[in-house]
Design goal:
The complex is a heterodimer of chains A (370) and B (388). With 370 residues, chain A is of the alpha/beta class. Chain A has helices at 17-26, 38-57, 72-84, 98-101, 119-126, 149-158, 178-181, 219-222, 230-245, 248-265, 292-301, 321-325, 330-333, 347-364; strands spanning 5-6, 65-69, 89-93, 106-109, 131-137, 162-166, 185-189, 200-204, 270-271, 282-286, 304-305, 310-311, 317-318, 336-340. Chain A has a seven-stranded mixed sheet, sandwiched between helices. A three-stranded antiparallel sheet of chain A has the order 9-10-14. Chain B folds into three domains: 7-214, HUPs (Rossmann fold, 3-Layer(aba) Sandwich); 230-284, Adenine nucleotide alpha hydrolases-like domains (SH3 type barrels, Roll); 288-387, Elongation Factor Tu (Ef-tu), domain 3. Chain B has helices spanning 25-36, 51-54, 65-77, 87-103, 110-129, 171-176, 186-195, 217-224, 375-387; strands spanning 16-20, 40-47, 81-85, 134-136, 141-144, 151-154, 177-178, 232-236, 241-245, 268-273, 278-282, 289-299, 308-312, 320-327, 331-340, 348-353, 356-368. In chain B, the strands form four sheets. In chain B, strands 12-15-14-13-16-17 form a six-stranded antiparallel beta barrel. In chain B, helix 1 links the parallel strand 1 (16-20) and strand 2. In chain B, helix 1 (25-36) packs parallel to helix 3, helix 4 packs antiparallel against helix 5 and helix 4 packs across helix 8. The longest helix of chain B is centred in the first third of the chain and has 20 residues, at 110-129. The chains are: A alpha/beta (370), B alpha/beta (388).
């Protein structure tokens, strides 16, 4: 067995060398960015440089405000809890990340069989006139399905409500442009694209429309109290620069080859939401008859890391709420794994995955291994 | 040095083996010894019920301490470890059956059901899919023989012998499973746990049914089968009404403590009538039975009509002498050599030939001693029958 093959980039991606270098470099700028002295100013300069890089990556140069957070969970919570304290209903697609769905009082809007928001259902719900904000992810973390965000934004704004977009999986994989999306706020995370964990950002078109979640010091223009995570922010910006410089077609080509080969190995295999527009790096593949947990274990023992559903801290694999929301039959949902590619992924990784996965499929059919 | 070798388990050196790790010391030692013996050990812990819900602690994680213990042990040994969610299957195959049995006036053995319906079926299937050559558990029982046609025997340590709980293991399953602790006594297991510095070396043994918090099984039964908690009469076998009970689900045949009624003689539960919600009690003599009818047989060796065997009808009771009076494909009638008390429908009757487990079945009903005979006469009657 060769070295480990890591195909779980949608869970988290290994730290990019450029990001590691930026983190180390930032440790020399130890000054508190809020301090008046030279050390503080140097820290501030680094922070603002990072803000410009990340802002530019989402087409927000100069527009609105980019607030650094501890991650996307905090960014999502900030926006939703701010609105929860005001009048009005919070709507979210039924395939949102748990950091959205677990917020109190969230009402869900269904998706179609390909996992795309049902725009007619959204419009009908908005027509009741009591919706304050809608949360919609730019692309799904389990299936890679891209949501019709711009269409949703038009419907949402027509009723005077706001649109919050979770762009965690999309950043660095497809174009993210706040004006093309038409969103009012956007949540980002560093570690999904090869930056450090514990670092994220919230972009706000109208900063005054969202109340802070954390109160205290005046950091981040009073939008988020607490001394900024300078190392995490520097690493975040470096990862964004590296990720946006890559050609997205490389991962898309690898993923398409993987899906085609998987089906050649196991003709009954299903690529979830294959007909939908999807992110280049995520493939959700079902191998009917073999529980997802078994596939994840067998691949792990063969040196390959993939995932299934949402893992709880006990490590038990729960049924995916995303596949349930898409109306996938239990027999299929229970046998679906997520293979997600990233900056470290090579042709050889895909070949290793297919070998091990094919061996499992044959073993399950109780065929002799060749 | 490990007291276990791959060869002694009829496994190839370095073979992959899945170990069912409960979080207790026995399965921890099993995993550690197999690892030490050079086998490629994969630890799997089954999440069988929601621990937070079972103990009704608000905010408690779905995983209990046992899962964390198993994970810590696997880390200490240096083997991969996985947790599998079997909650739905465990509920359907074990917990619901447990409650239904009590509601029907029977006394279930959830551990056998779990071995039969979960561990040696679904988990065994997972082990095969993972390319394992065997599934090992921390049961105290011995599996003798090579890769196939294995025999099931009692553990070397009679105080720890768990072969009773394994009677329903089919021959095909037995070929795939291993019980590495069967040759060890409990003291050796503890010593090995200490030698291997396992984090659970000092962990006390669990005596309870895993999914029943703090031994309050009737609460579980009442929640799932309210009719098992229907009030009814406690009747003496001589026809007297001695009192009232809060549901037959609180009783098991043979029980003598906590009956809530007293009489001149010590009283035993001798029968449970689910339909009338009646608990019948009587003196020890009234609880004596001549034998049992068993169903859903599992035969690990040929059974002959008239064969003299040892019969264990309850885990905590020693095996008694008896013989096979009648046997068909899925049912048998067993006669005890001497009248026996505390025989409860729903329990298993497991047949032994010396150390070897011949198989067994579930007790469908008990066979009464002819009423005209007292227990002394019954004994001579049965002796006469067996002598025929």
């Amino acid at each position: 067995m060769g070295p480990r093959v890591y195909l779980d980039h949608a869970a988290t991606s290994p730290l990019r060398p450029a990001s590691r270098a930026a983190i180390l470099e930032s440790s020399d700028f130890f000054g508190n960015p809020s301090s008046v002295h030279a050390e503080g100013r140097a820290g501030r300069a680094m922070l603002e440089a990072a803000r410009r890089v990340i802002g530019a990556a989402i087409g927000a140069a100069g527009a609105g405000e980019l607030v650094f957070t501890s991650g996307a969970t905090e960014a999502n919570a900030t926006v939703l809890s701010s609105h929860a304290r005001q009048a009005g209903v919070i709507l979210a697609s039924s395939v949102e990340h748990p950091s959205i769905l677990a917020q109190p009082g969230v009402e869900t809007v269904p998706v179609d069989a390909l996992g795309r928001l049902d725009l007619a259902a959204l419009e009908a719900r908005l027509a009741r006139g009591d919706v304050a904000i809608v949360a919609l992810m730019l692309a799904n973390n389990e299936t890679g399905v891209v949501q019709p965000v711009a269409d949703a934004a038009r419907l949402v704004h027509a009723t005077g409500a706001r649109l919050h977009v979770d762009a965690v999986q999309a950043l660095g994989r497809i174009a993210v442009d706040i004006d093309a999306l038409g969103c009012d706020s956007l949540a980002l995370s560093a570690h999904k694209l090869g930056g450090p964990k514990g670092s994220g950002a919230l972009w706000l078109r109208d900063p005054d429309a969202t109340a802070p979640l954390l109160h205290g010091g005046g950091q981040e223009g009073r939008r988020r109290a607490g001394t900024e995570n300078a190392a995490g922010i520097a690493g975040f910006a470096a990862a964004v620069t590296a990720a946006t410089a890559e050609a997205p077609t490389r991962l898309a080509a690898l993923r398409l080859a993987l899906e085609a080969d998987a089906r050649a190995i196991a003709p009954d295999a299903v690529v979830v939401a294959e007909a939908a527009e999807r992110l280049p790096h995520i493939a959700a593949i079902a191998l009917p008859g073999v529980p997802a947990a078994t596939q994840v274990m067998a691949l792990d023992l063969a040196g390959i890391a993939v995932s299934a559903g949402a893992a709880c801290s006990s490590g038990k694999v729960a049924r995916s709420h995303v596949l349930d929301a898409m109306g996938a039959p239990a027999a299929l949902a229970d046998c679906t794994i997520r293979v997600s590619l990233g900056w470290t992924t090579t042709d050889a990784d895909i070949a290793r995955f297919l070998d091990a996965w094919g061996a499992l499929a044959r073993r399950h059919r109780r065929e002799a291994t060749p | 040095m490990s007291p276990i070798t791959a060869e002694s388990l009829a496994l190839a050196p370095g073979a992959r083996v899945v170990v069912a790790m409960s979080g207790g010391v026995d399965s921890a030692v099993t995993a550690a010894l197999l690892h030490e013996a050079g086998l490629e050990v994969v630890g799997i812990t089954l999440q069988l019920y929601d621990h937070g819900a079972a103990t009704a602690k608000k905010g408690a994680c779905c995983a209990g301490q046992d899962i964390k213990d198993a994970r810590n042990v696997a880390n200490a040994i240096g083997i991969p470890h996985y947790v599998l969610d079997f909650e739905a299957r465990f509920k359907a195959a074990v917990i619901d059956d447990f409650a239904k049995s009590y509601a029907a006036g029977r006394t279930p053995i959830p551990c056998v059901r779990c071995n039969q319906k979960i561990k040696f079926t679904d988990l065994l299937e997972v082990a095969r899919d993972l390319g394992a050559e065997a599934l090992a558990t921390g049961h105290y029982a011995r599996r003798l023989g090579g890769a196939t046609n294995a025999e099931l025997r009692r553990a070397v340590d009679p105080a720890k012998d768990q072969s009773y709980f394994l009677f329903a293991t089919t021959r095909a399953q037995l070929d795939f499973v291993r019980f590495p602790l069967g040759d060890l006594d409990k003291e050796t297991t503890r010593r090995e746990a200490a030698r291997l510095a396992l984090p659970v070396a000092e962990k006390p043994e669990s005596q309870d049914i895993c999914f029943v918090p703090e031994g309050h099984y009737s609460r579980v039964v009442g929640k799932l089968e309210p009719k098992a908690m229907r009030k009814g009469a406690i009747l003496h076998v001589d026809g007297r009404r001695l009192g009232e009970h809060a549901g037959i689900g609180n009783y098991t045949v043979g029980q003598r403590r906590g009956l809530g009624v007293a009489d001149r003689e010590r009283l035993y539960v001798v029968g449970l009538d689910a339909e009338k919600a009646e608990v019948r009690v009587g003196p020890r003599d009234a609880s004596m039975v001549a034998g049992v009818e068993i169903r859903d047989l599992n035969r690990l060796a040929p059974w002959r009509l008239g064969q003299e065997v040892r019969i264990k009808h309850r885990y905590n009771e020693p095996a008694i002498a008896g013989r096979i009076e009648a046997v068909s494909d899925d049912a048998a009638r067993l006669a005890f050599a001497a009248p026996e008390s505390g025989v409860a429908p729903g329990q298993a009757a497991v047949l032994y030939d010396g150390e070897r487990v011949l198989g067994g079945g579930w007790i469908e009903r008990t066979l009464a001693i002819p009423t005209s005979l007292d227990s002394h006469a019954a004994r001579s009657y049965l002796q006469a029958v067996s002598a025929e």
